[in-house]
Amino acid sequence: MKLKDKVAIVTGAGRNIGEAVAHCLSREGAKVAVVDLEKDRGEKVAADINAAGGSAKAFATNVADEAQVQKLIADVAAAFGRVDILVNNVAISDNQHILDISKADWDKVIAVTLTAPFLVSKYAAKQMVAQGGGGNIVNIASTSGWRGRHRAIAYTTAKGGVVNLTRSMAVQLAPHKIRVNSISPNKIGSPVGKEEFDPTRPVVNLAQRTGVPEDMAKAVLFMVSDDSDFVWGENLFLDGGTMAMEVT
Questions:
Q1: Is the residue at 150 inside a domain?
Q2: 123 is catalytic
Q3: Which of 33, 65, 67, 107 could form a cystine bridge with 76, CB 3.0-4.6 A?
Q4: 98 vs 172: CA distance, rounded Å
């Protein structure tokens, strides 16, 4: 097992990519804090992991709220003894044009998609520093953070911020042996904010298939395990080759 006795926090773990990541890390030996705004969803994922022989506990948390984040990290450390891994997966999208989006919608997307990874990382890193031994943080970015889109102005801005948040965190936390990296998927699993995964959703990539949550889970496992111990402050495009293609 690559993560034996490690403690991992996965945000937005109640479904889709986050759920797949939580199960994958558990199978490799990690104890998993399943974090989701929806209590029932988080508890179901945690129950499924425990039923499969793993160790997981659900934490219903609004990760855009600083006080709730502070309590989350304290509660995880109390439940499992430490924090070794953080996967910042939670996000929401606006799917709006700049001429139409309200400031309230803009603020909500920025809070959940950019401010939340900052907050959870800050307090998880404080715990990692206090306990010693380093750690790993993976931010889920997006190909939308690397180029403009006809729809979604707040989401693209937030995901662009996640990319450079990752770099700055990597620089600042490296002295504490905390590795920080990001992964940028493209159309993997259900669309952001949607419940249903449509495997027939059209994609244009070199792989000629739709990405699935398990693809992301395997990439996250690589980033948080010793297999990537010389990867610091990097971004991995998990997009089937989309970003290598000419835009027409």
A1: yes
A2: no
A3: 33
A4: 33
Angle between helices 66-80 and 116-131 (to 10 degrees): 40
CATH code (residue 104): 3.40.50.720
Residues in contact with 149: Cβ distance below 8 Å, sequence separation at least 6, in sequence order: 156
Q: Which among 235, 233, 237, 122 has a CA at the least distance from the CA of 180?
A: 233
Taking the CA atoms of the chain, what radius of gyration do you get in angstroms?
A: 17
CB 55 within 8 A of CB 32: yes
End-to-end CA distance of the chain: 44
- pTM for this entry: 0.95
Domain count, the chain: 1
> What gap in Å lies between CA 152 and CA 118, rounded to an integer?
21
Tell whether 1 is covered by a domain.
no
Query: Does a structural domain hold residue 135?
Result: yes
Q: Which of 155, 157, 166, 223 is catalytic?
A: 155
Cβ atoms within 10 Å of 99's Cβ, excluding its own? 6
